[in-house]
Design brief:
- It is built from five helices and 15 strands.
- The protein is of the alpha+beta class.
- Helix 2 crosses helix 3 and helix 4 packs antiparallel against helix 5.
- The model has no long low-confidence stretch (mean pLDDT 94).
- The chain binds 2-amino-4-trifluoromethylsulfanyl-butyric acid (MF3) and cobalt (II) ion.
- 2-amino-4-trifluoromethylsulfanyl-butyric acid binds next to strand 4.
- Cobalt (II) ion (CO) binds next to loops.
Length: 271
């Protein structure tokens, strides 16, 4: 028999369901772990002679193994003339900054720096992270760039705390990059993330401290410094996706999805 609940009962139902919902919400935010596991698989596999399509395949298989799919594959940016994104990951080598499209013609060479940016989607939630991998014998200058890009993220999240503002994070990232003699990519930025890959707020990698929205526990954010060794200017290639540096200098990318808490932020895409 189907019972009809009184007003009071409905209130109690709502109350208990909220606890369950809250629990699942927390669990599902852990989708970030899939992204981390996928990056680990790539790090173990990446070798000179492989193509970027090989890496893309490894990433897709790893996501599948953990019950996730790529949120990037088929992603439609809603810009006229730009086709939906055709691959599972973005792989950008050397002077390519972001959104390099994997191809079986693109062979990874000794000394390359290879940025892999991927978004796993599971149970309706997205986890976004990027790493720049060093392949074989990489120059000291390239290593320093990759290290500084990673450090810029950690400088930024020192401010990713309840009560601080987005501008505090952006400012810290931008100032650190400048202090190292590098350029910030201004046309692309970090973002909120959750059910959608890109949610509010926008998180530029430069800005003024004390500006922007206040951070609150429960916010999930993708923080992602994109750093150029030389001048900040970029070009988009004819494929409508690949972003390269105009001066041909190297670029690096480092990104994690984080959770704002009552205390220190949790890094959801680090194992
Ligand atoms: N992962 C990128 C980001 O950090 C977006 C990739 S664009 C896509 O926001 F088309 F590849 F999905
Ligand atoms: Co992102």
């Amino acid at each position: 028999m189907v019972t009809i609940k009184s007003k009071k009962e409905i209130e109690l139902m709502k109350d208990v369901c909220k606890i369950v919902a809250e629990f699942y919400e927390q669990l599902e935010k852990k989708v970030g772990r899939v992204t981390a596991l996928t990056h680990k698989a790539i790090e173990d596999a990446i070798k000179p002679g492989m193509t970027t399509a090989d890496i893309d395949r490894i990433a897709e298989e790893t996501m599948k193994k953990y019950g996730a799919v790529s949120a990037e594959k088929g992603y439609d940016p809603g810009i006229r003339g730009v086709p939906p994104y055709p691959a599972a990951t973005c792989i950008s080598i050397n002077d390519e900054v972001i959104h390099g499209v994997p191809s079986n013609k693109r062979i990874i060479k000794d000394g390359d720096i290879v940025s892999v940016d991927l978004v796993a989607l599971k149970n309706g939630y997205n986890g976004d992270a990027a790493r720049t991998f060093l392949v074989g014998n990489v120059s000291e200058e390239a290593k320093r760039l990759v290290e500084a890009t990673k450090q810029a993220f950690f400088e930024g999240i020192k401010y990713a705390k309840k009560g601080n503002r987005i501008g505090d994070v952006s400012h810290a990232i931008g100032e650190y990059i400048k202090s190292q003699g590098y350029s910030v990519v201004r046309e692309f930025e970090g973002h909120g993330i959750g059910r959608d890959m890109h949610e509010e707020p926008e998180i530029p990698n430069y800005g003024r401290a004390g500006r922007g929205i206040r951070l609150e526990p429960g916010m999930t954010l993708a923080i992602e410094p994109m750093v150029i060794q030389g001048k900040p200017d970029i070009w988009e290639l004819e494929d409508g996706w690949t972003i390269v540096t105009q001066d041909g200098s190297l670029a690096a990318h480092y990104e994690n999805t984080i959770l704002i808490t009552e205390n220190e932020p949790e890094l959801l895409t680090i194992l």
